[in-house]
Write a structure and sequence with these properties.
This protein is of the alpha/beta class and 606 residues long. The protein has an 8-stranded mixed β-sheet, with helices on both faces. The chain is globular, with a radius of gyration of 26 Å.
């Protein structure tokens, strides 16, 4: 029977034992996966989407879960259905990797750091397919070619740490595809990757699916990726399936309130076309009053000129400096009061180093930084401490920037205590006021960081940054780790605060749709330099530098009618930012293509 589903999950229930009794991870979930189709399972953290896939592989038991009910029917290659919920672990060993392949979210944890790529690729082929060493190696090289890895013969003898993130993820895909499984489960396979690499990997998976006829179960929280990949969509919420339908039905005519809210919270590229200034997003089911654009002012607050930061590479017997990482190279820009300037680019382009250099958390080797008339580069330690009253930072991972042993009330009060700005009763009033500002209940003041969700922790980080009434906030990937709906709320909060308090944001991100939403001006970074800079509308609607154009092309759009094909994507690999001590880079020179819109004319390497 050709029309029979490859996998059928029927009334699955998974429980986890905790010291407070059993917790239900997935409750009564049913769906099918047919041959040659991609089913996307969407939901936010904790919705049970990963648990359902780990149950099908019977891996959930190794994570403390148990399948408490339901059937997992799988159509074996040899013909005949079987219920995987009853299979013993020896039989599962034959099925895993051979008939069901799995791609995990974090490629570094899926690969063994002590074995070469070649050894890890050939292992499955020799165990499941009984190939000889030479035949397995030949097939492995062929697989690396299929996933578009350059110089596959050389890669076979390399170790995982010698490859970039995108390369590692390709190796994991090659391993999953090695035995031509009937079903491929991909659990957030592109979350940790840059936009251009993500676009290539999605196109690659789509091509492999068409060529091999494998069925794909794709788990993600990114609605733009769903629009790009899915044939059918299953929406999960709190352990239950709330909606299922074809990809066009879900995007054009969602019926469940949760699906509607999820789609409303996704910033879409091109949504801000024709709008001069950023404005908060409309969220479903939230009364936001009237959404007013945020014009800001034209008065400069921060002027950066010729900022250069390099990190030494040490080596040899005496640990001498043998080369430098050119992290930030001759960067200049101006940020106005009450406005947002975004720096975008892929990992390793120097955007975070630029943000940290401005606060002098890392020391630049050259450049001028003028914050409201104060020359930050000339200050000594005590002067710098005073200057930091005016500039604060919000980091990407709120858990790492909060102290796990301190109550939240003390953490928000700490900056005020350090600077001796307020007395005891004033301070607690101000803390309570800050909790109101970031829309957290005052009862949370007595809690600890581990008792909050990611989005709530990020709000605490924002409250702490606001405690000293700064003029400038540097937000380094401040929303990239959050779920879609939480991300939308935090972005709106930042924009409301900007409108009310006249804050200036230096917003560092790799998410183009978010940047389009919040920015007045945008600078695109590549290999430590700003390659294009200008008003948001001009950079997004008329990108001039080839790297900006490639970046725009790669962004998936949350609309199933606007899918990217593999021929749209031809990205050049990013060269190394490490240069010898004798390397003398040319200064950055710009051409003004429109008023205020500058494009780098110096060779940027792209």
């Amino acid at each position: 029977m050709l029309d029979q589903p490859i996998a059928q999950i029927k009334e699955l229930r998974v429980e986890f034992q905790t010291k407070d009794g059993p917790v239900v991870g997935v409750e009564n979930v049913s769906f099918d996966v047919n041959p040659g189709e991609t089913v996307c399972i969407v939901g936010e953290s904790g919705s049970g989407k990963s648990v359902s896939s780990l149950s099908l592989m019977r891996l959930v038991e190794f994570g403390g879960g148990e399948i408490a009910g339901g059937r997992l029917i799988f159509d074996r290659r040899s013909g005949g259905n079987m219920d995987l919920a009853d299979a013993d672990q020896d039989l599962m060993k034959q099925i895993r990797g051979n008939e069901i392949g799995m791609i995990f979210q974090e490629p570094m944890t899926a690969l063994n750091p002590v074995f070469t790529v070649g050894r890890q690729l050939t292992e499955g082929l020799r165990v499941h397919k009984g190939l000889s060493k030479a035949a397995a190696e030949a097939r492995a090289i062929e697989l690396l070619r299929e996933v578009r890895i350059p110089e596959p013969e050389r890669r076979m003898s390399q170790f995982p740490h010698e490859l970039s993130g995108g390369m590692r993820q390709r190796v994991v895909i090659a391993m999953a595809m090695a035995c031509e499984p009937r079903l491929l489960i991909a659990d957030e396979p592109t979350t940790a990757l840059d936009v251009t690499i993500q676009a290539e990997i999605l196109a690659l998976m789509d091509r492999l699916k068409r060529e091999t006829g494998t069925a794909v179960m794709f788990i993600t929280h990114d609605m733009a990726v769903v629009a790009q990949m899915a044939d059918r969509v299953v929406v999960m919420f709190r352990g239950n399936k709330v909606e299922e339908g074809s990809v066009t039905e879900i995007f054009e005519n969602p019926t469940h309130d949760y699906t509607k809210a999820l789609l409303a919270a996704v910033p879409k590229l091109g949504e801000m076309r024709g709008k001069a200034y950023p404005e908060p997003m409309k969220l479903l089911g939230v009364d936001q009053g009237e959404l007013l654009p945020i014009p800001g002012t034209e008065a400069p607050l921060l002027k950066v000129k010729g900022l250069t930061t390099r990190f030494p590479v040490k080596g040899g017997f005496f640990r001498r400096t043998i080369a430098n990482v050119h992290a930030v190279e001759d960067v200049s820009f101006t940020l106005n009061k009450g406005q947002t300037l975004s720096l975008v680019g892929e990992s390793g382009c120097g955007k975070s180093s630029a943000g940290r250099s401005i606060l002098r958390l890392v020391e630049p080797i050259a450049g001028e930084i003028d914050l409201d008339g104060v020359d930050i580069m000339k200050l000594d330690q005590s002067g710098l401490r005073d200057a930091r009253l005016d500039m604060q930072m919000i980091f990407q991972d709120p858990f790492a920037s909060l102290n796990p042993k301190m109550k939240l009330e003390e953490q928000v009060a700490e900056p005020m205590r350090n600077y001796g700005l307020t007395t005891g009763s004033e301070r607690s009033d101000r803390v309570a006021h800050l909790f109101d500002r970031v829309e957290l209940p005052r009862s949370f003041m007595r809690r600890y960081p581990h008792e909050l969700s990611g989005g709530q922790r990020q709000r605490i980080a924002i409250a702490r940054a606001l405690a000293l009434n700064p003029k400038l906030i540097i937000a380094d990937e401040a929303v990239s780790a959050l779920d879609v709906s939480v991300q939308a709320q935090v972005l709106n909060l930042m924009m409301e605060l900007q409108a009310e308090l006249g804050l200036s944001f230096l917003f560092i991100s790799h998410d183009m749709a978010v940047v389009e939403r919040v920015s007045h001006h945008v600078g695109v970074m590549y290999l430590g330099r700003i390659v294009e800079m200008g008003p948001r509308a001009r950079v997004f609607e008329n990108p001039q530098h080839p790297y900006t154009q490639a970046l725009m092309k790669a962004v998936p759009i949350a609309d199933p009618h606007r899918r990217k094909s593999e021929k749209d994507l031809n990205f050049k690999p990013i060269p190394s930012p490490i240069h010898g001590l004798d390397y003398d880079p040319a200064p950055s020179e710009y051409n003004e293509v429109e008023p205020g819109h500058y494009v780098l004319t110096t060779d940027s390497g792209y």
